[in-house]
Amino acid sequence: MELPLTNFDGKKSGSVKLSDAIFGLEPRPDLIHRCIVWQLAKRRAGTHKVKNRAEIWRTGKKMYAQKGTGNARHGSARVPQFRGGGRAFGPHVRSHEIGLPKKVRALALKHALSAKAKSEDLIVVEDLKLKDAKTSALIKQFEKLGFSNALVIDGAEVEKSFGSAARNIPDIDVLPVVGINVYDILRRNKLVLTRAAVDALEARFK
After folding, report:
1. CA-to-CA dists, residue 83 to 58, 108, 135, 136, angstroms
2. Per-residue pLDDT tens for 85-136?
3. Residue 167 contacts by C-beta under 8 Å, 6 or more apart in sequence?
4. Taking the model in full, what pTM does it have?
5. Is residue 10 left, alpha or beta, with left meaning phi > 0 and alpha meaning psi from -120 to 50?
6. Which residue, 186, 190, 181, 185, is CA-closest to 42?
7. Going from the N-terminus, what domains does the chain have, and what CATH number goes with each?
């Protein structure tokens, strides 16, 4: 697969050949879905908790006589039936993480990249160097290129001035190649890769 190589001035600077083993697969929604579910489950804190009847501080004395009152046979004020009592079957502290093999995660990333390439939402740029590293100037540049909702992936480290300028722009995410993930790829309309990011991805999946 071959894509045009551009820069942030909108000028073409050649072409780049992409590996069909990474960017040319037929996207499998089931793999992508499994990986997104794994990602979202993994980031849940799981710190929600309620008190059950054993954790409520209340007297344990029997409320009233067992017989003769005409009322139900209650024995404790800590039970869930009463206001201020414990909660039955409430949430407790736990991990929501589910297992997903590393090979499946890697394959899902390939299919997410292939999905962007197939829908023509994948753009490859030479680098992220800017003449004027200001947010206002970068917004205008994005408008010129038609990037209103995009994920930008750089090489090992994000170019410092570009990262600072893009930090406050809504719907624009900037990550180093080590942080690329299926969820962020799918939640943005466009995927912008630098040449360094393409090289790093091809080396990673070699």
Report:
1. 12, 49, 54, 56
2. 999 999 999 999 999 999 999 999 999 999 999 998 998 988 888 777 789 8
3. 135, 174
4. 0.82
5. left
6. 181
7. 2-45+99-204 (3.40.1370.10), 50-90 (no CATH)
